[in-house]
Specification:
This protein is mainly β. The protein has one helix and ten strands; from the N terminus they run H-E-E-E-E-E-E-E-E-E-E. It has one domain (27-137). It is 12% helix and 53% strand. The strands form two sheets. The protein has a five-stranded mixed beta sheet with strand order 4-1-7-8-9, with no helix packed on it. Strands 3-2-5-6-10 form a five-stranded antiparallel beta sheet, with no helix packed on it.
């Protein structure tokens, strides 16, 4: 039974991973994700509405509120051979008022200790927005 469940989970995950991204619409702005210190950054909400595909945001020009899910690990009780890292889940919200059509942006989430942060970079690598709200679960 356990083998069957593992096989089923593997099939479901591989099906999600093999779904291609939609074509980039030149009339929209595209937001990619990056993390150097975490495990996962995924799109959660765009202007308060859940997104269908958490791998990216594709937004109309103008202002938008972006919310991402950010998962990372923290070491509790100091670093030792016997301390296991604990998962931390944060929802990070940021606003940007000037998305441009046909432009690519990069939302970078990072952690420092128990805290989570995010920055939005334009195509030239300039920071155009930072986190406005961070809500974390243990």
């Amino acid at each position: 039974m356990r083998t069957f469940l593992l096989l089923l989970v593997g099939c479901v995950l591989s099906a999600c991973a093999s779904t291609p991204l939609p074509p980039v619409d030149p009339n929209m702005a595209w937001v990619d994700f990056q993390t150097l210190t975490g495990k996962l950054v995924m799109a959660e909400r765009l202007d308060g509405q859940r997104v269908a595909d958490g791998r990216y945001f594709q937004v109309t020009p103008g202002g938008h509120e972006l919310m991402v899910r950010f998962d990372f690990e923290v070491i509790v009780g100091g670093r030792s051979l016997f301390s296991d890292p604990q998962e931390r889940l944060c929802y990070i919200t940021l606003d940007y008022d000037n998305f441009q059509p046909g432009q690519r942006y990069r939302l970078q989430a990072r952690s420092l200790g128990f805290n989570a942060y995010a920055r939005l970079y334009n195509a030239q690598g300039k920071v155009v927005s930072e986190e406005r709200l961070v809500n974390c679960l243990p």
